[in-house]
Write a structure and sequence with these properties.
The structure holds two protein chains of two kinds. Chain A is of the alpha/beta class. Helix content of chain A is 38%, strand content 10%. In chain A, the strands form three sheets. Chain A has a six-stranded parallel sheet with strand order 3-4-5-6-7-8. In chain A, helix 8 runs parallel beside helix 9. In chain B, helix 2 packs across helix 3. Chain B folds into two domains: 121 residues, no CATH class; 113 residues, no CATH class. In chain B, strand 6 and strand 7 form a beta hairpin. Chain B contains eight helices and eight strands, in the order βαββααααββαβββαα. Chain B is an alpha/beta fold. The chains are: A alpha/beta, B alpha/beta. The interface between A and B is large, with 72 and 62 residues.
Chain lengths: 437, 245
């Protein structure tokens, strides 16, 4: 605590021997390998000034520190406290019946790793999850203690994301919320039937109860902080959740409805979708040639439409067509079903209308509105603004003028959007995770 | 077209822009460039006047604070050949105030804002990609070679974040350095640089990080193209996790 000199001691390595390090290497291999299937890596949404004698602060927009070989951003030391699990969930690499090597960190090891990595600017902070061994409370207590040591003994001001173990007591959830920036309970699967089938030891109620509690506590903290600046913050970066896609039979429509409910009723900041990677063989699981990455990508796009573009799940999908189109992003697919909405005149359309045009995103819609105050926006101007014209050109006019002479026959339009204007065929498998923001 | 020249210094540029704006010439009909002293060079050389440059900054700060911010990032990019765009951008900033940054359909605004954004993007990137190493004497050193001259705002970021350790940031391309002594920041240049000895523990921690970096990727999702587009290879030279690739 206070009074620390400029030069930090290195408790981890002062006693260290070569053997100690090998042991840590092994633990990291096991416990980060076991944590990598968690999609969340965001370090955004929190804004904490560092304390005078301490190390670390957080940045509202979040910072990525590296990108792993799978292209996903690394922002946090994402790690399990232990992978020694008494549960036997079909989809999980750490299930008790899996013959994988088991390891557990001590609290001090995780604290020291976090501090050593943070001082070298490898990370924004810590993402801590764990397998459940003795009981949910036993594990949750150990995880909360790591975060409390970081905050209180190391004066750590960086980002902390704590996973909440389903079935933990409300008292531990509260303690977690007071030291973490973000807390999350994984919903795991998109329906209670699938949960029952694939994770029979996890109960829907045990997942939803802490979610509700977190939402309520966060609300109380906001009210308190309005009265007094010194009232404690509760998980200032909010709560998120994650579900596995493709291990169970739910449709995309069911999934989007669930997400919409979570955003509206539970006040979640983010829902993460994780393409099912078959790590076990189990006859309750589907056999997949590869993880459904494209489906995961489309779900993220649709999730964006729900949160930032004013779409409802029913506009994106219907009971007749309950799954997202693989060839088109969900907004283009919507546009193709609604020719009556187009063309949109970019120099008059409202913000909400501009957002419906394929190729125009939140940023470019705002830029169009700012630019047209100076002069009408032309096709050339749309390019300068950063609109993706190879998609947008089929759906807009600029001061009444369409782009070239466009054939807007629906069948022809589909074709042009798929292959571009006759040149090279467009590869639809463009797999970028928009979920890391 | 009116043609003007200046001496190539940042101060000369702002001072030249100030005198053109005062002259009453239409900026849209004016071209400004660095004096090359070639035989057939066209245009009148504007003398550098630091008082004039200072006064322009002050006026712009009052009229369009966001544009001053843009100008600051623009200079970090150390671009040459955009003097004329900058002249027209500043003229528009005086005319429209901070709304000017929304006039992206104007070629000069677009060029200046895009250049400023490039510097802003790299600054943000370096906040994540900079790597500190512990030296034998217990201080910390981070080396980098960014395209833009981001060392000042970058050092300010780390002075709030890693305030409990003494560190240096060294821009190897520009031979410039920042130093945080635990209380205050200072900046300077280093003509001679050799990398000091690392602390005894440093290599062990670096190995732990390399192990983490390897195992955190999901093998079934391997995607080197996406990795490269998010983290261009030009930054790998100083990345602990990319050594030996």
């Amino acid at each position: 605590m206070g009074g620390r000199g400029a030069l930090h001691s290195l408790p981890l390595f002062r006693l260290s021997s070569y053997i100690r390090c090998m042991e840590l290497q092994e633990k990291i291999t096991i416990l980060s390998g076991a944590a990598r299937y968690d999609a969340s890596c965001a370090s955004s949404g929190s804004n904490r000034e560092g304390s005078a004698g301490g190390t670390g602060n957080t940045s509202q927009g979040g910072i990525c520190h590296s990108w792993a070989d799978d292209g996903r951003c690394i922002s946090l030391l994402k790690i399990l406290l232990s992978n020694d699990c008494r549960y036997d969930c079909a989809y999980c690499v750490n299930r008790s019946s899996n013959p994988v090597p088991r390891a557990s960190f001590t609290a001090r090891e995780v604290v020291d790793l976090t501090m050593e990595f943070y001082r070298r600017n490898y990370i924004e902070g810590l993402f801590l999850s764990s397998a459940v061994n003795v009981s949910p409370d036993h594990t949750m207590e150990a995880m909360v203690r790591v975060a409390e040591i970081l905050r209180n003994e190391e004066c750590f001001g960086g980002y902390i994301h704590l996973k909440i173990i389903p079935g933990s007591s409300p008292e531990l959830v509260r303690r977690a919320g007071l030291v973490a920036d973000r807390i999350s309970v994984n919903i795991e699967l998109p329906s209670s039937e699938s949960l029952h089938r694939l994770a029979p030891q996890k109960k829907k109620e045990a997942i939803l109860a802490p979610m509700k509690l977190i939402g309520a506590e966060a609300g109380v903290s906001l009210v308190e902080r309005r009265k007094s600046r010194n009232a404690p913050r509760f998980a200032p970066a909010g709560q998120s959740t994650q579900m596995i896609i493709g291990a169970s039979p739910e449709t995309d429509l069911q999934i989007l409805r669930l997400s919409q409910g979570l955003y509206r009723k539970m006040n979640l900041k983010r829902v993460y979708y994780s393409a099912f990677v078959p790590v076990n063989s189990d006859n309750r699981l589907p056999v997949l040639a590869a993880p459904p990455l494209l489906r995961e990508h489309r779900l993220y796009q649709a999730d964006w439409l729900l949160r930032f573009y004013g779409f409802s799940p029913e506009e994106i999908l219907s009971d007749d067509a309950p799954n997202l189109d693989e060839s088109f992003d969900p907004k283009t697919a919507w546009a193709l079903r609604h020719p009556e909405f187009f063309p949109v005149e970019v120099n008059r359309a409202s913000y909400a209308t501009l957002l419906r045009v394929p190729g125009i995103g939140v940023v470019s819609a705002k830029r169009i509105i700012a630019a047209r105050r100076f002069a009408p926006v032309t096709h050339e101007g749309m390019k300068k603004i950063g609109v993706v014209m190879k998609r947008a050109k089929y759906f807009i006019t600029c001061s009444g003028r369409p782009f070239d002479k466009l054939d807007q026959q629906p069948a022809r339009l589909r074709q042009s959007l798929l292959i571009g204007d006759g040149s090279e065929p467009k590869v639809p498998r463009q797999l970028v995770l928009p979920g890391m923001g | 077209m009116n043609h003007y020249l200046y001496d190539g210094t940042p101060e000369g540029l702002v001072s030249a822009i100030a005198s053109i704006l005062d002259s009453g010439d239409d900026p849209e009909q004016t071209v400004l460039a660095v004096q090359q002293n070639t035989l057939f060079e066209e245009g009148m050389l504007l003398r550098t006047d630091s008082a004039l440059a200072e006064a322009l900054f002050e006026r712009l700060r009052l009229r369009a604070p966001d544009a001053v911010q843009t100008l600051w990032y623009f200079t970090m990019a150390e671009t040459t050949e955009l003097e004329t765009s900058l002249l027209r951008y500043i003229a528009l900033a005086f005319e429209h105030g901070d709304r000017v940054n929304g006039y992206l359909t104007h070629a000069s605004v677009k060029a200046v804002v895009a250049t400023a954004r490039k510097a802003g993007r790299e600054l943000h990137r370096m906040k994540g990609l900079l790597r500190f190493e512990q030296l034998r004497d217990g201080t910390w050193l981070a080396r980098m070679e960014p395209d833009c001259n981001v060392i000042q705002p970058l050092a300010r970021h780390f002075s709030r974040r890693l305030r409990a350790q003494e560190w240096f940031i060294y821009d190897a391309g520009r031979h410039s350095a920042a130093h945080w002594d635990g209380h205050a920041l200072s900046f300077g240049t280093l003509e001679q640089f050799s990398r000091p000895e690392l602390s005894a523990e440093e290599e062990a921690v670096q190995q732990l990080w390399q192990t983490f970096f390897k195992t955190i990727a999901i093998p079934e999702r391997k995607n080197p193209r996406l990795q490269k587009s998010n983290m261009p290879a030009k930054y790998w030279k100083y990345l602990t996790e990319k050594q030996g690739e």
